[in-house]
Amino acid sequence: MMTDMEEKKAKLIERRKEEILSAARRIFAKYGYRRTTIDQVTAYLGVGKGTVYRYFNDKKALFLAVFEQGMGELRQAIRSNVEPVVNPKDKVCAAIRTYFEFFETNRGLIEILMQVRSEFKDDYRRVSLALYEDYIVKIQQNLREGIRTGVFRELDVERTADAISATLQGVLQGFYIRHFGLEKKNLAETEKEIAAGADYVKYEKAGNGAGQRRELLTDRTGAVTALLLEGLLKKDSREAFH
Fold first, then answer.
1. How large is the average pLDDT for residues 57-68?
2. 31, 44, 50, 164: least buried by Cβ within 10 Å?
């Protein structure tokens, strides 16, 4: 059992580590892995380099820790918002909504996720595979329960689960290409506006600084949910297709 002094020290260490990761997430998302330096992180925090190196061996270790922390937060969001849902159809809806809401609230993580996939493929595969193996089993379990209870039709559970996962990831990647390619605003400013619930922000597109509605990842929730639950074909067309 830890003494009071040891417990206070452990809490201080954890708090400092969280502060470093929070600062690094913003800076990596804004400047990218290659352009970010440890000096930028320490300047943001107002601490010396030794403080950062006490917790992380180098920039790569810090970068991957930010990525792993974010994926851990996604896993927790799924556990909190999706796993308690009982009805198979409602569970699918909750999973889609949670996925898009999470990345809309944590837009910087989209940039970091794409950077890790580009810069460190093996580490991306390692972390992503662990997350994938966790939720793909849950998707399969939900599909089987839906089939058992008559909510879902008979289908190939494994391949359907893979298709659901690929659809969500594909939408996220498409959003990344459009959003991060067109928006010229400072990421930190954008995240502040998101946190404040702003519906309109200024974009610098084609020399026009007029206010335009901010494109939201969550705008896709309804379309993706309808596609996955209802498909593309009308009822009579589905019957003819089968």
1. 95
2. 50
What separation in angstroms does the CA of 237 have from each of 41, 107, 241? 57, 39, 6
**Residue 75 burial (CB count, 10 A):** 14
Task: Give the rounded distance of the alpha carbon of 43 from its chain centre.
Answer: 27
Which sign, positive or negative, has the C-alpha torsion 76, 25, 21, 119? positive
Alpha carbons 9 and 77: distance in angstroms, whole number: 29
Q: Taking the model in full, what pTM does it have?
A: 0.81
What are 159-172's pLDDT values in tens digits? 999 999 999 999 99
| pLDDT range class, residue 240, cuts 50, 70, 90 | low
Tokens 């335009």 -> residue: 212
Q: From residue 216, how far is each of 16, 25, 31, 75, 139 by CA, in Å?
A: 32, 21, 22, 21, 25
